[in-house]
Amino acid sequence: MVNSRKRLPPLQNLEAFEAAARHLSFTRAAEEINLSQSAVSRQIKHLEQSMGVQLFTRTHKTLELTKAGRTLLDGIERSLTELRRTVETIENDRSPTVTISASMAIASFWLLPRIAEFKDRNPDIRVRVIAVDGEDYAAIRNNDSDFTILYDQGQCGGQVCIGLFEEVIFPACTPAYLKGRTFTSIADLSREKLIDFEVRHLRTVKGWPDWFTRAGCQTRGIDYTLSVSNYDLACRAAYAGQGVMLMWAYVAPLADFASGVLVRPIDDIVNTGHVEYLVHDAALERSRPHMVFRDWIVEYARRTNEATQAFLVS
What we know:
Belongs to the LysR transcriptional regulatory family. The chain is of the alpha/beta class. The chain has three domains: 11-93, Winged helix-like DNA-binding domain superfamily/Winged helix DNA-binding domain (Arc Repressor Mutant, subunit A); 97-166 and 274-313, 3-Layer(aba) Sandwich (D-Maltodextrin-Binding Protein, domain 2), CATH 3.40.190; 167-272, Periplasmic binding protein-like II (D-Maltodextrin-Binding Protein, domain 2). Helix content is 45%, strand content 20%. The protein is built from twelve helices and ten strands. The protein has helices at residues 11-23, 26-33, 37-51, 67-94, 104-121, 137-141, 175-178, 186-189, 208-214, 231-239, 254-258, 288-313; strands at 56-58, 63-65, 97-103, 126-132, 147-151, 160-172, 194-197, 224-228, 245-248, 270-280. A six-stranded mixed sheet has the order 4-3-5-10-6-9, sandwiched between helices. It has a two-stranded antiparallel ribbon with strand order 1-2.
């Protein structure tokens, strides 16, 4: 068996080089790794001699990497990143925590109601849910989550991207609001008390006017009874009988429709063809706890889709 370390320069020399290359300063590198400046300089000189190349261009006031120096730094950084991920994988297997981020609507209405199911099956895996208010998908991406649920595949950025739900949108209200009202066409709905909420993050449906257009109905001047800032508030207003809201099928509370708490005032739906995706870094595929969680999310989404399709055609 070949000893791979025989082909490497001394690791302390590589450590000194990495710190100096990152800071472009022997002094700051020495402070970071608790050596004298002269010791750092000697280690880098030994490294250059052993490799037979110059790694830095030295002047009186500046320190710059040569082409060989940049190549070596890139290789060290890639190796350190891989080593860091390996250590994190081992630590997660010992005391695993899985973090997932999503919009407030998906976290509140889809994920949390069933997370106990996952915990019952996997009591050794801790789950952390990050819900981003205001449906801000840029904020959903910009955190340290292992998994994110994102709208539209174009946001996946080269990561593993698994489709969960198609975007299907339909009107909903309470039976109390519907009582005494008769809809002979979709145009009748446009004259009702419509609850609006901000959906600026979406690339497709931009609220009621857009929904009516996609459903094949041209409307003039919709008068909103109530406008709110997020999906949760729209749901609360609809449950209170204040009007009709647009509901996304994959977060629809199907049990409340089955029990008669909510109803669909008309059968019309809009399927935009867009999809919510589960996104994660490929490195997580080496982590058993993360793959257990991913498999559960995908299976839960499959069951959600089956139940939603049955509901929409009933």
